[in-house]
Amino acid sequence: MKKILAVLLVLTLIGATLVGCGTKTDEGDKKGEVGATATPENAEVSATTTPQLEKIVVGASTTPHAEILEQTRPLLEKAGYELEIVEYVDYVQPNLALDSGDLDANYFQHQPYLDQFNQENGTDLVSAGIIHYEPIGIYPGKTATIDALADGAQIAVPNDATNEARALLLLEAQGLITLTEGVGLNATKNDIAENPKKLDIVEIEAAQLARSLQDVDLAVINGNYAIEAGLNVASDAIAFEEKDSAAAETYGNIIAVKAGDEGRKDIKALVEALKSEEVKKFINEKYEGAVVPKF
């Protein structure tokens, strides 16, 4: 009897051992299967994850600056940057926003205007690169041509110092007025030395000039605001600055940044994208001479 019990006990122990081994093997197989499944899934997620892009925030006039900036998006994305464009309708707020740190850069102005703004507002903004030039033009309002101007006719010009000087120099080039000798880029209406037709020079905010055409005889309008109003300097203006003039060099539109930021990698990438062949082609085809690349 004892022998029979001993045999039964041995058999029971052997069976338990076999069951235990079988359980471990199954769990091991299951773990192996889970591991084998997890590895390619993880690999796939890793392969499709989009790298985080660094954001560049740029302030710009709507036309043509924001339109030109839009063309740089794919180029900047390849360089690792996401472009955010903040549009402005005046010439003051984008510089204030840049100075306060709300923008990384802005794109709307030329160097003389920036110099004037810095002087008047105590800011320290600098150019990171010249991108394009917009010829300023004289556009007909109630009077169709310069020759048809009557005595006392009204001519609207920008009211900011640098663009007013530019407008007055263009009027002088057409023989309408004579400025005090040597006044140059500092000219204001008070520097008109001769005005044979007794023209009434009306100072108006640059953004409002195109809207003033119905009320004045002629208006001297900045390129960006003319384009925004559907005007083209090459076909609609009755006189304009020449592409090879001193104005073309002086009034090139720039990327402005806070002093010290011009060497930042993101700013360099932005300027490089704006000076690309893709952007040059877009400017030439889109604006037909109303915007001239300076690169």
Summarize the structure.
The protein has 295 residues and is an alpha/beta fold. The protein has helices at residues 2-48, 62-70, 73-78, 93-100, 111-121, 161-173, 223-228, 246-250, 265-274, 277-287, and strands at residues 54-61, 81-88, 105-110, 125-133, 137-140, 154-158, 178-179, 192-194, 200-204, 218-221, 239-240, 252-258, 292-293. Helices cover 43% and strands 22% of the residues.
Task: Explain how this protein is built.
The protein has 2 domains: 54-134 and 251-293, D-Maltodextrin-Binding Protein, domain 2 (3-Layer(aba) Sandwich); 137-241, D-Maltodextrin-Binding Protein, domain 2 (3-Layer(aba) Sandwich). The strands form 3 sheets. A 6-stranded mixed beta sheet has the order 2-1-3-12-4-13, sandwiched between helices. Strands 9-6-10-5-11 form a 5-stranded mixed beta sheet. It has a two-stranded antiparallel sheet with strand order 7-8. It contains 10 helices and 13 strands. With 295 residues, it is α/β, with parallel strands linked by helices. It starts with a helix and ends with a strand. It has helices at residues 2-48, 62-70, 73-78, 93-100, 111-121, 161-173, 223-228, 246-250, 265-274, 277-287, and strands at residues 54-61, 81-88, 105-110, 125-133, 137-140, 154-158, 178-179, 192-194, 200-204, 218-221, 239-240, 252-258, 292-293. The longest helix has 47 residues, at 2-48.
